Amino acid sequence: MENLDAAITVTVIGMGIIFLVLILLMGAIMVLNRVFPYVAPTEKATPATAGSDDGEIVAVIQAGIAAYLKRKPEDVSIKSIK
Amino acid sequence: MEGGITLSSAMEQIIGMTGFGALTFGSVTMIAVALLLLYLAIGKGFEPLLLVPIGFGCLLANLPMSYMTSGDEGGLLYYFYQGVKHEIWPPLIFLGVGALTDFGPLLANPSTLLLGAAAQIGVYVTLIVAVLLGFSLQQAAAIGIIGGADGPTAIFLANKLAPELLGPIAVAAYSYMSLVPIIQPPIMRLMTTEKERKIRMEQLKPVSQKVKIIFPIVVTILCLLLLPAAAPLIGLLMLGNLFRECGVTKRLHDTTETHLINIVTILLALAVGSSMTAESFLTIQTIKIIALGLFAFSVATAGGLLLGRLLMVATGGKVNPLIGSAGVSAVPMASRVSQKVGQEADPHNFLLMHAMGPNVAGVIGTAVAAGIMLALFGESALMTSGHAESIIRAGADFLRSIFIG
């Protein structure tokens, strides 16, 4: 019975500490994300249109995506391939 | 004839020199256990990277006169076992796990850390049940950590608190980890509605590389200031992750995530297998531990799902509660289970990356839980007379003052 009391107390203390530690970490991550926000790399996107050399590939990808989404190919527009 | 050797005495002498003469019921049973583990690993694909060397270590240890048990001083596996005894192998495995783990999904959605915390309820509820079944507090703590679904942590803690139970605890932990895809789905279906399982979550935002580099350093400082006992596990986990993210230690990263973790896995698993002798394994306690392990996994899954549902309500339906079950460690299998059960309800729902957040949070949560157990029941705590008792008594008084007044 004494051990049971101790086990229940350890449970409450243990869960309390785990939540405390992980909540502190959560706060630290939020601060880090604010201080160091993600900046997208400034790469020059290569436009891929039907008129370019990759036109055929773009058309195939467009048709594939349209079939998957159950839409018409003209409803899907591919702006660039990176 | 010189020496007076007869055919029967010669045969007796030869049989006495072989292991056949030394076979006992216990060793034969343990050889059968070893063969069962090998069958489960090879034939059924249950955690083969661990159960093959554990099963083979068990086989070697139980072949009489081979002197391959963890206790046979001078034998090969005795030296391998020193790495477990002196807590070297489990932290080195954690170094490799850190090098393999991408904390990106957790950093993108830090609230999933709470799900990793909630799943640790399996550890503590099992501790209470184990005490009710007659285990000491130290043994109960070592058994409870099976619910964290983290093999190295279970071995680390069992060796510190209840080395006599190391074999059954390790086998239970790794067996149930491999059974996550069978244990979790029925609980997940039971505790969520189909509508909830269909919830689609917003795409995770990208995280800057600076945050990924600073995160392991912050975790190390924060966790170890709060819980120094967790230093071997959390310290090496985060060092491995720093190797991965810092971008200037490619060779160290490559080694830790491949060769080092593989070598240490062989040494650790063989050492654990070598501790599975008839005297330590063939007891009623083993059956209780195997049953408690399953209970621990189930409660941990339910705990994560409950908080998942709470987060779903709190966010107005933006969180799919299925990712809560990934709060048990078992990386990445628990995340895959969330993805699979989610796709049963909606084939176009992709929960995998969302579930990786609570999944890696579970690794940190389990290491913190182990640190708490060590702080309360570990060697350094026990060296200080009445240390655990005084903390527990103070905690009990505090709780009583809150609930009773």
The level of helicity of chain A is 55-70%
Share in β-strands of chain B: under 5%
Largest sheet of chain B: none
Tell me the Rg of chain B in angstroms: 23 Å
Low-confidence stretches of chain A: none
| Class computed from helices, strands and strand pairing of chain B | mainly alpha
Record keyword descriptors for this entry.
heterodimer; A: 0% strand; B: 405 residues; 22 helices
Which secondary structure elements does this structure contain, and how are they paired or packed?
The complex is a heterodimer of chains A (82) and B (405).
Chain A (H helix, E strand, L loop, with lengths): L1 H34 L19 H15 L13
Chain B lengths: L6 H11 L7 H19 L4 H15 L13 H10 L3 H12 L3 H5 L4 H6 L2 H12 L4 H8 L6 H11 L4 H13 L1 H12 L2 H4 L11 H18 L4 H16 L3 H25 L3 H4 L2 H31 L18 H13 L6 H26 L1 H5 L3 H17 L2
Helix pairs in contact in B: 2-3, 3-16, 4-16, 5-10, 5-15, 5-16, 8-9, 8-18, 9-10, 10-11, 10-20, 11-18, 12-18, 12-19, 14-15, 15-16, 19-20
Overview of the molecule:
The complex is a heterodimer of chains A (82) and B (405). Chain A is mainly alpha-helical. Chain A contains two helices and no strands. Chain A has two domains: 1-39; 42-82, no CATH class. Chain A is elongated and about 75 Å long. Chain B has 405 residues and is mainly alpha-helical. In chain B, helix 8 (121-132) packs antiparallel against helix 9. The termini of chain B are far apart. At the A-B interface, helix 1 of A face helix 7, helix 8, helix 9, helix 14 and helix 20 of B.
Brief synopsis:
The complex is a heterodimer of chains A (82) and B (405). Chain A is mainly alpha-helical and 82 residues long.
